[in-house]
Amino acid sequence: MTDRPVRIVLDASAILAFCRESIHVGEVIAEIADEECLFGLPVMCLAEASRAAADGDRLDLLVNHPAATVLDVDPSNWRALAVVYDTVGRLDAAAALLAAVDNDGYVLTGQPGLYAGLAGGGPIIVF
Fold first, then answer.
1. Phi, psi (5° rounding) for residue 39?
2. How far apart are CA 111 and CA 127, in angstroms?
3. What DSSP letter does each residue of 62-100 carry, written as one string?
4. Nearest-angstrom CA–CA distance, 38 and 113
5. CA distance 94 to 85
6. Fewer CB near the last or first residue (10 Å), C or N of the chain?
């Protein structure tokens, strides 16, 4: 375990962008690492992104990054996950949002429309 906070949670679109060598996602990851914080990778987002990722090596690089932590949904939060899923329409995006809220962080996304139904726009950062 670590005491470093999770500041950013990458959704599937951000994970895919990293695999496609997006400088924008890479810069955010570098900033998080420089601040000695963590970025979260929800398991459901990794699974979704892996379906479309042509470069499995970059996906492994991301997962094994020293500032990365793989996140799972706490089973006791299943109702909250269901409510968020109903709002955003995708289980992986719901997991990312729930992880961001649970960690007082933000979701990094290239698909802000997924989160358009959230009050106030939600804790979203668009790359």
1. -115, 140
2. 9
3. HHT-TTEEEE---GGGHHHHHHHHHHHS-HHHHHHHHHH
4. 25
5. 5
6. N
Cα–Cα distance, 87 to 75 (Å, whole number):
19
pLDDT digits (tens, 9 = 90+) for 63-104: 999 999 999 999 999 999 999 999 999 999 999 999 999 999
Bridge pairing between strands 106-109 and 6-10: parallel
If you count them, how many residues does the chain have?
A: 127
What number of H helices and E strands is found in the chain? 6, 5
Torsion angles phi and psi, residue 106, rounded to 5: -130, 155
Q: What does pTM read for this prediction? A: 0.94
**What is the set of domains in the chain, with CATH numbers?**
6-126 (3.40.50.1010)
108 - beta bridge partners? Answer: 10, 125
Average pLDDT, the chain: 95
Helix (H, G, I), strand (E, B) or coil at 34: helix
